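Problem 3 from the worked examples.
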Amino acid sequence: AHEMGHVYNGDMFATTVLAGLMNTFVYYIAMWVRRFFAERDQVALGFGLSILLQIVVSILASILICWFSRQREYGADAFSAKVYGKDSMISALRAIDRWVTRSQVEYSGQDALATMKISGNSSGFMRLFATHPPMEARIDALERL
């Protein structure tokens, strides 16, 4: 039901549009920088700066897209709660959290579950790139429904 919530809420479409807009933004910034420096006979400097700006702005755009994705998770959780009940969804999230925690201990040192990106257990700077909120935040949001 959670994944159907993403479909129902139009999350894939919205995220795709946002990513496309961000990519377009990055492209036009790079083009503007290259053109600006080319007009001043500093093509090499413009090229180097445009690459640097593409990297920096792409990272910032990724942070924005990941933030947007985390917000959409709450909507998919709420949809699931409507279909199966709030308590069932909370129970499912707690079960997933226990499984992820146990698996991380069993496979310590390996990122065997990292590709799933469902636990939201990132810390520090990497938390900005998490596509899912921390499990406790998701459970808290469901409890407030």
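Problem 4, a separate protein:
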Amino acid sequence: MSSSTAIQPNTHKRALKGGMAALVGTSIEWYDFYVYATAAAIIFPHIFFPEDLDPALATLASFGTYAVAFFMRPLGGIIFGHVGDKLGRKPALTITLILMGVATTLVGVLPGYAQIGIWGPILLILCRMVQGLAVGGEWGGASLMAVESAPPKWKTFYGGFTQVGNPLGALMATGAFWALSLLGQEALLAWAWRIPFLFSIVLIGVGFWVRYRVEETPVFAEKVEGQEQSTPLLFALKNNWSPIMLGFLIIAMSSGGYVIATTFVQNYADTPEIGLDPTIILGALTVASFVEMLVTLPIAALGDKIGAKMVMYIGVLSSFFVIIPLVLSIQAKNVALIWVFVILIRITLSGAWAPLSTLMAQMFRPQSRYTSMSLSYGLGAAVWGGLSPAIASLLLVITGGNFWSVVGFFGLLTIAAYIGVRFAPQHSDLAPVTGSFNARTDTTAVNTHD
């Protein structure tokens, strides 16, 4: 497109459409992701593995299929980042949405180990790999759909729409399994567990309709011809390696810290040494997800006032100081305090999550922004999100069940995220780069507050 083409400023109407498209799509994809996670914990050990297998080993194998997706995310980021940087954010996001829906629906019709033997878990792993590819390409594109469509001084707020998708998707998934559990364990294992997976096809239809109606982002649509790269990945590795690695560090808290403060804390409370009723933590986590969903957009809006970096600093550091009383309350078996600190740490973690879309979008130039963001996020999710539970488990084994070793590891995640935020570069060209609405008019959106 010619650089002389006049471009209209981003409006709130355009931004709201982009934000809602990001929210609906990411909510559906995270719903699919968390439906699998829930089933991996309570269903798959009974369905896709031999009946005579030790229950602990069956659960371990089931979580192994869950972990596969984390390590597919970087590849998904590379593949769909290339599509998004070459063909546009909209087609890339349409493909990821369809892939996720197809993979999730297929899980809902897979025969179990009793019917097809070893092919059951093999096909399950293949479906999970496709889910990982789709999620790896989803977040970066959805973030850019929201952020690049937003007016100046509103970038972080509209970027927060993408971030709301995670807690909303988690709520939908856990709510679905909670409702089906009312049918009884026998019905749940026999057939009811398939319903949330099959329902995905309906949600994908809704998401496809919403994304079909949204416009391509102005930044991509008006890229100067000379800026286009034949291979965005090579450009990213050559020119963006440093910010990619800084983004990798930033993810340490919102991925690794999040897993420890939620899933791993739940497992710790269920150990023989603590022996808390699992419903205590589950109930607190469910309410915390709802609270997180409510506070994400206000926290994101705060980033437009004091800077995305400042919000990230507060979220990262405060999360470390909340994990300590959370552990103490679990050890004391104080249910009221457990609920307070489970909810509170989800609020503080929102500070490390809500402004993430805008912060990372501002780290990269348009030429390979989708690829660079997705690769950075995918690597962070794979390492921090995929390995943190294993590292925390190993620390408990080495220290004889001393959870303070895990708190120390949480501290290392805090330091990593702080360093990433501190040195993250911030560029101003989140507005269209040509025509009457020049990128320089958007410099007010970059408020780093270092």
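Solution to problem 4. Confidence is low (pLDDT under 50) at residues 1-7, 431-450. The chain has one domain: 12-445.
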